[in-house]
Amino acid sequence: MESTPRTSLRALLAGVLVTAMVAAPTPASAQPLAHPQDDYAGSQIAKHEGTGGGPLLDVRANDDVLGLDVASYQGTVDWAAVARNGGKFAYSKATEGITYTNPSFGQQYNGSYAAGLTHGAYHFALPDVSDGATQANFFVDHGGAWSRDGRTLPPALDIEYNPYGDTCYKLTPEQMTAWVKAFSDQIWYRTGVPPTIYTSYTWWTKCTGNSTVVSRNPLWIPRYGTDVGTLPGGWTTQAIWQFADKGTFPGDQNRFNGNGDRLRSFTLG
Length: 269
Hints:
By secondary structure, the protein is an alpha/beta fold.
């Protein structure tokens, strides 16, 4: 039987729709990330700013507690060994953008806690794939929650050089500042505590204009050497200093700005 004009038109429209669906590009925010396993706190800092090359901090200098940060790059961590070697706290990467979750996060986050460490989660920001609140929600929903148990660090935002392109993610300083504030506000709303901000002085100055918009949040500063250097964005002190990208513990080496009692106070918000 020959198709009626109406039937032919319907078939033609259906074919056009299918063709359009096939040809439509996948939104950037939904595309798989090329190398999230290589993106971790400080990966781009070391690449763009170096690792110092000089003498490292004397970790025995005072009673500040020592810790580490890890990501899928470290895989399964021997947390009992970390504890024996003096590790007291650990941040583990939970998420990146709005599509990636660390496959080793459960072992790292729960394992560090079971070994007696204070644990926390961080998010690797990609401000060019979604707004700040959306990434904050993705983070909280996939490991970035917080509990007032005295052994959980505030959720942390890792915001640094873009591992996939433009240093500042093609955002102006005003846009980047608004993005960070939106992320921070949503984390605060969802968890009850402001997130720790991981960033370097150089990146923060270049990409936010050295904004002070989140200067009330705790600062986690990467600087490899014997001192923290100049702090960005109105901060007068750091909560955590990432002082080396290798050392006694797996992953990066960190020093909390205080002793064990002060660390516990920090976890209580």
